[in-house]
Write a structure and sequence with these properties.
By secondary structure, the chain is α/β, with parallel strands linked by helices. The protein contains twelve helices and 17 strands. The chain binds (2S)-amino(hydroxy)ethanoic acid and manganese (II) ion (3 copies). Belongs to the peptidase M20 family. Keywords: Hydrolase, Metal-binding, Zinc.
């Protein structure tokens, strides 16, 4: 029987804190937008650590990175531990990074124990998971899984018109691999980014799937005029129309509570001058629900709201820019995670993820499941994001055992 490995998490915590210094913000968070200088620096540090751990590094054409630890059976498909290093503009130290560095810690622990696995084991860094710089989210894993073409992915531009293709850098230590390699299985460790595990005093979330997400761009066309002499009834004011739309969109969240989510994260007015009635207002709309039928109803109602608002005043357009249907993960992978949680003795529960993750698209091309650990107050996509070292270590031990159930010793 191979020696039992128990990951204590100290080295994992050190790596997380070292990575958090890259793109560190004044308020204790990180800003490592996809393919930015900070993201490049984070990827270089990850590559260095993986080369030091004896891994071969390859990158695919959309910029996904893979650190490969050979297995005894060179024909066996790799068991991959993946997540992301890119962050929100005011991101936290753990979103995405935890899953990547927990994967590295598994490899380092196998090295320490001088254990070789039957199948190769890899850590994947999926490009542009957040969608904060290049929409849509989960772009790198989506191209890898064939949900988007490589040209579409490389052609996505940020708000300054910079294309991902131009922003990508090839890392000198990385060989090039085509997108879409076959994988044996994919496991992603991630902080929950919500309050459930902490509230229920559970250490591990066995993630069975991910709720559906639809992203829209809303554009309201007004006409610029002077804030002083122009009588209210003469104005075509997109902000007043936005106020009515926003109230109705948020009503959808109440109508389909408790699982519906409605978020308006971006709001822009043009020309954005305090004494000019705007000529245009644009905002993003993010609708989510775990039930496909209800998400469709919310989508249909959003369309109807816009249609009614278009009967008068400032014209509104609602353009769907991304749809990620609800996903159910692979039963055997879910069982491997449950078995690992039971074996390691941590209190666990099954749950559906409210956030999107790279595992959504990778589950289309490989058996996939996820492992959640609590984060403080359920806060994430916030510089105050934090997690307990012992919970992070627990998730890493569960990841190790779930991976070994597939990779074999
Ligand atoms: O939008 C999401 O849920 C993910 O964090 N990109
Ligand atoms: Mn994430
Ligand atoms: Mn995120
Ligand atoms: Mn995510």
């Amino acid at each position: 029987m191979p020696p039992e490995i128990t990951i204590n998490g100290d080295r994992l915590w050190e790596s997380l804190m070292a990575m958090a210094e890259i793109g560190a913000t004044a308020k204790g968070g990180v800003c490592r937008l996809a393919a930015s200088e900070a993201d490049k620096a984070g990827r270089e540090l990850f590559i260095k650590w993986c080369v030091d751990a004896g891994c071969e590094i390859v990158a695919d054409e959309i910029g996904n990175l893979f650190a490969k630890r050979a297995g005894e059976d060179t024909d066996a498909l790799p068991v991959v531990m993946g997540s992301h290093l890119d962050s929100q503009p005011t991101g936290g130290k753990f979103d995405g990074v935890y899953g990547v560095l927990a994967g590295l810690e598994v490899i380092r622990s196998l090295n320490d124990a001088k254990l070789s696995t039957r199948a190769p084991v890899e850590v994947a860094v999926w490009m542009n998971e957040e969608g904060a710089r290049f929409s849509p989210a989960m772009l790198g894993s989506g191209v890898f899984a064939g949900a988007f073409s490589l040209d579409y992915g490389l052609g996505r531009t940020d708000k300054d018109g910079v294309a991902l293709k131009a922003a990508l850098v090839q890392h000198e230590l990385a060989g090039i691999a085509p997108v879409g390699r076959k994988l044996g299985a994919h496991f992603e460790a991630h902080i929950e980014q919500g309050p459930i595990l902490e509230a229920e005093k559970k250490t591990i979330g066995v993630v069975t799937g991910v709720q559906g997400i639809v992203w829209f761009d809303v554009v309201i066309a007004g006409s610029e005029c002077h804030a002083g002499p122009t009588p209210m009834e003469m104005r075509i004011d997109p902000v007043q129309k936005a106020a009515s739309l926003l109230t109705q969109f948020f009503t959808l969240a109440r109508e389909y509570a408790p699982h519906a989510r409605v978020t308006v994260g971006e709001i822009h007015s043009h020309p954005s001058s305090r004494n000019t009635v705007p000529g245009k207002v644009q905002f993003s709309l993010d609708l989510r629900h775990p039930e496909p039928a209800i998400l469709q109803t919310m989508h249909r109602k959003a369309d109807a709201i816009v249609k009614k608002e278009n009967l008068c005043g400032a014209p509104v357009s609602l353009e769907e820019i991304w749809h990620s249907p609800p996903v159910a993960f692979d039963e055997n992978c879910i069982t491997a995670v449950s078995n690992a949680a039971a074996k390691t003795g941590y209190p666990f529960k099954e749950m559906v993820s409210g956030a999107g993750h790279d595992s959504v698209y990778i589950s289309r091309v490989a058996p996939t499941a996820m492992i959640f650990v609590p984060c403080k107050g359920g806060i994430s996509h916030n510089e105050a994001e934090s997690a307990e070292p012992h919970d992070l270590a627990a998730g890493c031990n569960v990841l190790l055992h779930a991976v070994l159930e597939y990779a074999g010793l």
